[in-house]
Each structure stands twice: as C-alpha cells, then as structure tokens.
Amino acid sequence: MNRIKLLSEQVANQIAAGEVVERPASVVKELVENSLDADARKITVEIGAGGRSLIRVTDDGFGMSRDDALLCLERHATSKIQRAEDLASIATLGFRGEALPSIASVSRFTLTTRERESGSPEGTQIIVAGGTIAEVKAAGCAPGTSVEARQLFFNLPARRKFLRTEETEAAHIQHYLTLAALAFPEVAFTFVKDGRSVWQLPAVKSGAAASSRIEALRERFRALLGDEKLLSANFTAALADDGNSPAPEETDIFETASPEKSAASEISNLKSQIRIWGLIGSPGVSRATRDGQFVFVNRRPVENRGINYALIEGYHTSLMKGRYPVCCLFLEIDPAAVDVNIHPAKREVKFHREFEVRKLAAQAIKETLLAFHSEPVKSTAEMPSAPSELKFVPEASAPALPNFPEKLKPSPPTPAQIPSAAQTPLKMGFSSAVQSAPSSKSVDVSPTAISQPPSSSATPLLNVPLRLVGVIGKLYVLLESDRGLVLLDQHAAHERILFEQMMNRIESNTAAPSQKLLLPETIELPPRDAQFLREQLVVLTKLGVGLSEFGERTFLLDALPPFVKVPDTRRFVFDLVDELRAAGREVNLARLGEHTVAKTVCRHAVKANDPLGGAELENLVEDLRHCAMPYTCPHGRPTLIEMNYRELEKKFGRTQ
Ligand code: ADP
Ligand code: MG
After folding, report:
1. What mean pLDDT comes out for the span 351-364?
2. Which among 21, 34, 96 is the best mutation to test ligand 1's pocket, defined by most ligand atoms within 8 Å of the CB?
3. Nearest Cα to 38, choosing from 26, 30, 47?
4. pLDDT tens track for 546-600
5. Is 166 helix (H, G, I), strand (E, B) or coil?
6. Residue 543 CB partners (closer than 8 Å, separation 6+)
7. What is d(CA 415, CA 520) in angstroms, rounded to the nearest whole number?
8. Is 478 exposed, middle or buried (0-12, 13-18, 19+ CB in 10 A)?
9. Are 577 and 532 in contact (CB under 8 A)?
10. Which of 165, 220, 312, 599 has the fewest CB atoms within 10 Å distance of its CB?
11. In terms of C-beta density within 10 A (0-12 exposed, 13-18 middle, 19 or more buried), how is residue 142 classed?
12. What local confidence, expressed as pLDDT, does residue 14 receive?
C-alpha cells in the first residue's frame, strides 16, 4: 500500500514557518532584513499588541515589479542567490527565499510595492489570507515596499497560544530592532508601538573611513542606549587562507599564468583579512548579563560562543568574575570564510577558522584596552625633555599629607575653565611628587593626549593631573582632578601594580625575591588538585613561592615572596588550588596558569588597612600610571572611581 503523499504548497509553507516564524520578532527580523537587502534608507516598523495584531514594515528600498511581487510569495523564490555555490559566500542578509511565503501562510498578509527605478507612479498590492492569494491589484503608493502581517498565527491556534504577553513579544521586537539599528547607522529607523512612536532615529552620515564609521556607530549607540564609557576598537589582521580558497601554490601558478597578476593577488589579500572594529566598554565597565554585548559578523547580528569567549579572554584582568563585557563589535570577514546557513533563523554563524577568529578577536579587545592607557605614556617616553614653560607648577594649596587641605577649590570650574585636552598640555606628574622629588618617571606633557578628543570623558583618568587630598577608611585615597573627585582603592591599585611586576618577571625570566619560612608546611591535596598545582610549580618558583613535591600528593611550602603576608600559609595554597581549578573550567588561555598564580599571590600581598604615608601614596599613583592596564585590579575590580563636577552638582541638586 502506498502511504506517502506530497504535501500541498500551503502545508509546506506552514511547516517552514514553524522554523522561520517563531514569534512576532522573527517576522520583524525577516521583513527588516528584506528592507536592508533592498537598499532602504528609511525603515518604519509599526506593531500592535506586541506584534500579535499587527506588524507592518515599510521601506524606501528598490521595490518590486508586479511579476516579482507575485513570485516572491512562492517558496524558494529569491533574487539573492542562484546556484548552490552561491551559498558558500553570502553577502546579503536573506538567501533562502522562505520568509515571505512562510509569513504569508500564517497571517493575514498584504504586500504593497513599487519599483524605485521605474517611472510608473503605480505599484502593486497583493492580499494573501493564510497562504492563499485573495487579490492582486494596482495601487498608488510611494516607491519602496510595505509588508503587513496581521493576526499572526490566526490559523494556527496552537502556535498562537504559545505567544507570551504583549510586553514580552514587544521587547523581543525592540531587541532585534536595536541590533538592526546598530548595524546600519546610515539607515533611518522609526519604531511605532500601538500607535505611539518609540524611536525616530535619523540616518547617521558616515564616510567609508574606519574612524568615520566608528563615530557614526557611536552616535547611533548613544541615541539608542545612552552614554556609556566606550573605547573605539579598530583592528585588522591577516587570516590564514581557509581550506576552501585555492591553496597558495595554486594561486601562484594562476598568478604567473595570468596577465592580471596584481588583481589576483589583491583578491587573495582581501580574502585573508579580518577587520574587527566597533565600541567596547572601558576597563571597569561591565554587566551582570550578556545584554550589553552586541556582536555582528558582516553586519549580521550573531550569537557565537567562540566570540563570547574571545571577549572574556580579551578583557581578562579588566573584567570581574561573573561579569560580561559591554560592546558593539563588528567582524568583517570574507563571506566565503563563514557559514551563515547553519541556523533556521540565521542567528548563529560558523567560521571556517573558528579558533583563529577567536584568537584575533581576543587580541583586538586586548590591544584596544592597552592602547587606552599606553598611548600617551609611550609618546611621552619618546620625548626626552619637555619645554620648561610647560612644567607643572604645584598648587599653593597642595596639602601636607595625609591631612585634608584647609581650602577646597571654591567652585567647580566652568566648562570654559576646564582645560580641554585639545588646547592645554596635560600634566602627567602627580603634583606633590613633582614638588618634593621629581622622579625620572614623572612626565610633564603628553603630546598624544593632545590629539585626543577634547571631551573630558575621553581622556583617561591617569592622563590628567591628580592632586592628593587624603585617605579615608584607611583604604580609599582621595584625589582631586580638574574634572572633579577621584577615589583610588589602595588595595586594588597595589594588587594591579604587583601583578604586572610579576608578569613582567615571568616574561623576562628574572626570579622574584623569596623569603624562607621559619616553619615549612606540608600540604596534602586530592589527586586532581595536586595535578593542577604540579603543572604550575615552575611559575610558582619564578614568583618566589617555594613549593615542591614531597610525595605523590604532598607538597612542601618553604618560602614566600617577602610582600606576601599570610597568617595561614596552608590557606594560601588552598586558595591557589581553588583559583586554578576555577580557571581550568573557564577560558583556556595559554598563559592562564601564570595569570592565576600571579593573581592569587597578589591577593595575599597587601591588606586593605595597611596605613601608607604620603610619599608611599604618591609612589602608588605613579606606579599605577606606569601599568599597562591600570584601571582595574587583576580581578577586574576598578582601581579608580571618578565623580566629576557635573555628577556632584547633580547630587547636590545644583543642576537637573
Ligand atoms: P530572501 O530574502 O531569502 O530572498 P524572502 O522570502 O525574504 O527571501 O524574499 C523573497 C524575495 O522578495 C527577495 O529575494 C527579494 O527579491 C524580494 N523582496 C522581499 N522583500 C523585499 C523588499 N522589502 N524590497 C524589495 N524586494 C523584496
Ligand atoms: Mg528575506
């Protein structure tokens, strides 16, 4: 008996819709992607009742002819790819030709479209109900396309039942629109919810240059998500040829045989490039969830575990455990080096060279964070001596430490008084340090900083002069800058300094000072823990921790660095093992062991309540200035907090 039958087109579309149209937000996503693929400059999204009663997406893109409008409702009808090979390098957001027929099969659907290029003032309107075309007619409309889907899942009560509340569905829609708007700042977006306008984002003009695109992104980001302390990332690297491109030898043969040798090599160069650019949170800026993390591959918002790891790797000691980076990061890579056809809603992508992409993404983040602080220092080091007239003259009111000054600055400087980085040379020295003993490290002027944007938030805190005011709670060092109040966590700062010194030691292979213990301790560990520790013994020795094997699972601790003051030496070893175990489950970084060991040693180095004298505090700030990543301790907690005059005025109710 024959049992198998071909399904009707309508049922097939509904099955496809099961994958493509998960919820109202998927409809919005597919329609907006179509508008973006159609080169729209302005997109309007209207929704009603969380998208259940109405979704309408209107664009001013290139529109469709009558024939195309009819064809686009057929399954597997697309203008974006033609051959199977095209699937290997997709440059558009859509490519399956499934979205419109799927949406039309599960809603009351109207498509109105008019070709942008055609002279005719008339467009086409097609009305579809549950997958069946009800009407095709000529319609007067603006150039572009408008797709309306009403009563989503009206013919699939089971699916309709699974929809969440209007607010939840609307939130999903808004989330997708945020992603789309971030990826396309040059497109104007309007979002109307239940008749009320939520956004009216004007198009942001931008040139082709990287800096101009970053600025456009920054403007769009601010319009959508408000002000965040974000650094500009701009990174390009070579990516090894992927397996699908011709092998180098083949390219060579082709090149020598071809007269267009230079054109061919240009193409192969392009193939091997990866650009990683965008905005990333300054050190210390983080979230408890991944909600502030936006990642795009060739402008497509994606979820990719490798990149998530890369972000955490890149931030490394600038991120607290359990916190997530804030970023809006764009990866641009040859479409042939990434597979976008692995997820029904195209949310996930797979890189052919996953590991390499991940490594480069981590490097891009790390370099951006390092550059934030190191640039001005680097260039000041290049300047042998600063002109004397630029030397910082200590303020007369500089206090005797650690007392508080008798007179605080009478009033906050007006914006005109605030030395803008663009006009005023930045004073790098720590005022009292300059006064008492100008160290060879203290610098007076920072030429690179001058070229930085004049906005105060853009100038890193340690690149502006800081004046010591006092210490509170035996821990927090109070400093004053031209921008306002600065608090330094003495313990966190010390940890950062020690950590970097230790890492430098490991790198340069110089042994750290070590002090023999009066009473060596033997410590027995479970086998797995013993293994973690055994792998790090060499690093531990380099750091001045005298730990040696004393049996299969027993270790002997007989020396510690002099600055490590632990009342309980056994606890110190257990802490170390705990950290290594926790780190082992996390990101697998080549130097993770070293970092973990160094971090743990640092944690035991200084106690919060150690009273430090004025000179010591000055040295602390000065040493911090010379760190590569001074703004967080090795565990990612901030070392410095700034409260500028604007914030103070707000708190005191002087301004709104
Ligand atoms: P895909 O985007 O995968 O090609 P869709 O079903 O989403 O499949 O769309 C089918 C085709 O209809 C597209 O390839 C495109 O040619 C056309 N189309 C859809 N939406 C628009 C639009 N807003 N403007 C112009 N053409 C569109
Ligand atoms: Mg599409």
Report:
1. 92
2. 34
3. 30
4. 999 998 899 999 998 877 777 777 887 788 777 777 665 554 444 556 677 777 7
5. helix
6. 502, 505, 506, 512, 561, 597, 598, 601
7. 61
8. middle
9. yes
10. 165
11. middle
12. 84
**Of the candidates 355, 350, 347, 356, the residue with the CA atom closest to the CA atom of residue 335:** 350
CA 83, CA 245: separation in Å to the nearest integer?
A: 18
Q: Which range scores top for mean pLDDT: 35-49, 223-237, 409-423, 427-441?
A: 35-49
Residues pairing with 556 in the sheet: 522, 548
80 CA from centroid of ligand 2 (Å):
9
How far apart are the CA of 72 and the centre of ligand 1, in A?
A: 6
Residue 592, pLDDT score: 59
* Residues flanking ligand 1, CB < 6 Å: 30, 34-35, 38, 59, 61-64, 72, 77-80, 94-100, 145
Element (H, E) at 110: strand 108-114
Residue 194 banded pLDDT, cuts 50, 70, 90: very high
Closest ligand to Cα 29: 2
Distance 99 CA to ligand 2 centre (A): 5
Q: Residue 548 has which token pair?
A: 């040696």
Integer Cα distance of 336 and 245 in angstroms: 8
**Distance separating alpha carbons of residues 597 and 575, to the nearest angstrom:** 10
pLDDT of residue 605: 66
Terminal CA-to-CA distance of the chain, rounded, Å? 80
What CA–CA distance (Å, rounded) separates 160 from 151? 9
Sign of the CA dihedral running 290, 278, 500, 543: positive
Q: Which ligand is nearest to the CA of 96?
A: 1
Distance 35 CA to ligand 1 centre (A): 8
